[in-house]
Amino acid sequence: MLRKNPRCRLGCLLFFGMFFSASSLVWAAEMQSPWKFVFSLQGQGKGMALPVALYVDHEKERYYVVDSTGNKLVSFGADGKYLQEFTAEGNLKKPYDMVRLADGSLLVVEKGRNSLTRVDLKNKKTAHTVVKHQGQEVFVDRLEIAGGKVYVLDRSSGRILQLDETLQPAKSYAMPAGAGWLADFKVAEKKVWVLDQKKKQVYSYDENGRPSPAIQLTGVDFPVSLAIDPTGLLYVLDRHRGAIVAFGRNGEVKYQFLTKGQGRDNLYFPQEIRFDHLGRLCVVDEGNSRVMVFKR
Amino acid sequence: MRRLFIILLIFGLFTGLACSVALASEVCYKCHDKKNFTGKFTHGPVSQGKCGDCHNPHVAKYPGLLQGEGAALCYSCHKRAKTEFAKGVVHQPVRDGKCLGCHAPHAAGHDGLLRKNLAETCFVCHQEMAKPQAVSHKPFAQGQCTVCHQPHQAKNDQLLKMEADALCLSCHQQAQGSAGHRGFPRKLSGCLSCHNPHGSSRKGLVRQHLHQPFAEKKCDSCHGAQHNTGSEACLRCHAGMKTTMMAPHNHMFAGTENGCILCHSPHAGDDKKMLKTSGNKVCQPCHQDTFSRYAQSQHRHPPVSSCSDCHEVHGSDRLAMLRDDGNQVCSRCHLTQGKFSHPVGDKVIDQRTGQMMTCVTCHDPMGSPHRYHLVLSAKKELCTQCHRSY
């Protein structure tokens, strides 16, 4: 009938054409990123040299950017406006991460001292602490605070440590045998989520230290940071590709956005991602000396 | 009658085909000396006189009147190879599509149409391997590289046929109980940590430079329950390294094992740094994405002897763990750059970032699709990133 009836042939072609177009649209919608650029956090004057971390103060609704090479912490308001810089009177040595403690003091990772440094802003005092675990010096790297508890990533032993009030380990999260090395971790949904850069896996542990099955990541070259979305997605920052990849909780790629470069939709050697107090996704774009904020 | 006609037709076709093949090669050999196309081993199409399988006798896009370029032409017949050679760790000439780096296209005196014998073929690129050693591994001395390595691709680093320890123990089953390994606390492993699989000046192929405690047989200075684990075990003695690693970007690895021994051999090495492998190869297992991008890029910085020529491998305050800022690290070799080219340096600010312009603002030495390994095309968008009114 198809051969004989040109109308029928045309109808079939039209039907298939429409079907494939609709499928393509659905596929494109699934793969499209919902994130839209809102603003950038950039310092004043010479700006920031190499920002490496972001702390979002949910209570005060402020952003604190850690500028490692600039040896300073730079604060911004909720609207992204620059507020001030803090250098502890020039005494910060290669700061790498920070959180604000319940008493209002700041806790800063100083790589240059391998110290967790408590900065008492009211009394203008700093106290350096070298953390030790089982007699060994801890190389503090990433720092998180959740539920009043402070967590650090130890780059030497490859563990996540929960610290007590004296900043000494109270609990340790050991990684599975054969794990690679850890690039980042976050505390969310009452779990500790850990990114293994070498194995390209995400491990998670509940409050009792019980692990969940590892999530295998595909489609990333050099993962450096992760962020846990309450809506169920897992975001991974790919430093070498300058991209953010969204994964389902089983590791399936949902979509990705941004590319490597120095333009507005680019990232250049980005270092960290995290959510702010409004659920916006923030990217510490080290190579472009800025923090980009995206909203859904 | 009909049957006879069919038989004659088939016979005619067959004869015609044979004549045409013979004609093709004979026509070519009128000018091209046949001697150059014959050897102990001859490529199938050549022996069948099918010059036209690879060459177009009249006109072609590619040099040598070839029908296709590089490996693409080879893969038009060797179809399975194309799929196989894309898997796992791939030998660089294969990745670059340079089949003719090792193979002769017409005829050769060696199996597999190798241009030279197996070892000589390998030594064309791996020149450092050709140096004579006081003690040589038997297969290596006999030029049997493929006893351990696969020439095109493999599942394992260094194109090894098996995982390194399993490969060694597949021949050296007696090693477990040998005198040299007495006291080894578990099943033998990490063979390459002490032994050079090709050759050495030391007996037993033990690598040239020994870690001092190993040389003094003071195993317990590093091993034992009373000692630190992880990188701290090394940094107790190598305190200077600890300081270098106290940088925002560092190679202090957080893993379940000591991160130092990812790159260094704790017992013996071929050089004073006691790196596990030479040159850039030591970086490759972890930075495979960068190596692949470099290998696949059309434009890239010429090869350097070691990644550490530009990168500070233990720790750096700079982006991409560069040794110096993006100008200084380049101008050590590119002496005249920065003096007559686009202004760079701390007085020239990149409007996009507020940071100083450097060589790596415009160039990506690890590879790019653009000329001079520029990050964008120089014909338009590279310059207009900053010079918007142009």
Commentary on this structure:
The complex is a heterodimer of chains A (296) and B (390). The longest helix of chain A is centred in the first third of the chain and has 26 residues, at 6-31. Chain A is mostly beta strands and 296 residues long. Helix content of chain A is 9%, strand content 48%. A 4-stranded antiparallel sheet of chain A has the order 1-28-27-26, with no helix packed on it. A 4-stranded antiparallel sheet of chain A has the order 2-3-4-5, with no helix packed on it. In chain A, strands 6-7-8-9 form a 4-stranded antiparallel sheet, with no helix packed on it. Among the domains of chain B are: 31-115, no CATH class; 288-384, no CATH class. Chain B is 27% helix and 7% strand. Chain B has helices at 2-29, 44-47, 70-75, 79-84, 92-95, 118-125, 138-141, 164-171, 212-215, 232-235, 239-245, 288-296, 328-331, 359-362, 381-384; strands at 41-42, 89-90, 107-108, 135-136, 153-154, 199-200, 209-210, 249-250, 268-269, 315-316, 345-349, 356-357. In chain B, strands 1-3 form a two-stranded antiparallel sheet. In chain B, strands 2-5 form a two-stranded antiparallel sheet. A two-stranded antiparallel ribbon of chain B has the order 4-6. In chain B, strand 11 (345-349) and strand 12 form a beta hairpin. The longest helix of chain B is centred in the first third of the chain and has 28 residues, at 2-29. The radius of gyration of chain B is 28 Å and the shape is flat. The interface between A and B is large, with 49 and 34 residues.
Average pLDDT reading of chain A = 91
Largest sheet of chain A: 4 strands, antiparallel
Number of strands of chain B: 12
Written as H for each helix and E for each strand, in order along the chain, the element string of chain A is HEEEEEEEEEEEEEEEEEEEEEEEEEEEE
How large is the radius of gyration of chain B?
Answer: 28 Å
Strand proportion of chain B, as a percent range, falls in: 5-15%
Give average pLDDT of chain B, whole number: 88
